[in-house]
Amino acid sequence: MGMYLTLAWRNIWRNKRRSWITIASIVFAVIIALFTRSMQLGSYAKMIDNVVSFYTGYVQIHSAGYWEKQTPDESFIYSDSLAWVAEQTKNTTAVTPRLESFALVSSGEHTAGAIVIGINPVSEDRITALSRKVTEGEYLTADDPGILLAEGMAKRLGVGTGDTVVLLGQGYHGVTAAGKYPVTGIVTFPSPDLNSTMSYLSLKETQFLYGAYGRVTAIAIMIDNQKHLSAVVSELKKRFDEAYEVMSWDEMLPELVQMIEADNAGGIIMLWIIYMIIGFGILGTVLMMTLERTREFGMLIAIGLKRMQLSFILFLESTMLSLIAVATGIALGIPLLVYMYYHPIVFSGRMKEVMLSYGYEPIMPFSLDPMIFCVQALAVFVVAILATIYPMVRTLRLRPVNALKTG
């Protein structure tokens, strides 16, 4: 084995220019694959973070069956002990109670349907940073009798801070929910949907409005890292009995999951196209290398070297070249992606406006998930090895007499 390795290593560096061209092509392929996949996974992670930090949180706890009906009748009695249990779960960073329902919001002759969310202003701000979205007026306090309206809804109703709106809906167990609220502030969301439907009251006022005293419909939870989501959900399911349902963001937002899966499938197809281009490039280089050495191969076979041994040496040469190239590609790709991770691409102009209109930050983030480096390096290495199959087969069929006539 040692002799084969020595022969393969020496053969690689007999023609340094040819070897460096092969290595450079594989290095380029590794860097392109790393860059593409890191950008794709980074954008998904940012998209999920944007969505959960705008509204849902990573995890929510409801009473069993709430998510199908989503009415105050499926609310549950909230206590500090429930919040304490959630807060003590490992990797949990913020917990907040909510009472959510729907109502008609009216001012003068104008009426609009609204999602009404009763919040604890302090703990809600830790999850959604709602206070930073207030563009007019003031943020709520725990005993605030006023309401926060989304900017689009306020325009539709023709109201501003200091004006009064009327809420009318159905409360807990069918009671009529009606009340007048001064507009404390206007909040602006990048998403048009949120901007035209959202309204916020303090939790205390919302429970009074819907006759759901002491009750909430959800406990929203943020965690420190997406990769801990499964562990957090699993632990919460152990801590909360069957009277509650613990749902992760992907269960609450299946449309977002489907969109990511569809886009991811397109990204993987693009990667396979890149792999094919890489494979043909490497095949061309290896085939050229084999053709240049046909006379040499014929002579080696003529003096007694077996075809299988010759093919094995070719395989070792390709393996060594691929290993050197993949290692170099990873070594060059790591600092590049680290730089892009901390300095993401920032969009401007029309692209910035489009991304903001969909509620996303106008940046192209990158991921540093270690699996990206492992998977892409392995994929390119396998492609490089597969590209050597045809030259090896050609060598196995080589006739010394014909080979010695070449060159």
TrEMBL record:
Which domain of life, per UniProt?
Answer: Bacteria
Which stretches make up the ABC3 transporter permease C-terminal domain? 268-398
Where would one find the signal peptide in this protein? none
Q: Tell me the compartments it is located in.
A: Cell membrane
- Give the membrane topology: Multi-pass membrane protein
UniProt keyword annotations, A-Z: Cell membrane, Membrane, Transmembrane, Transmembrane helix
**Among the record's GO biological process terms, what is one?**
lipoprotein localization to outer membrane
UniProt family annotation: Belongs to the ABC-4 integral membrane protein family. LolC/E subfamily.
**Protein name per UniProt:** ABC transporter permease
According to its UniProt entry, this protein's organism is candidate division TA06 bacterium
Q: What is the lineage of its organism?
A: Bacteria, Bacteria division TA06
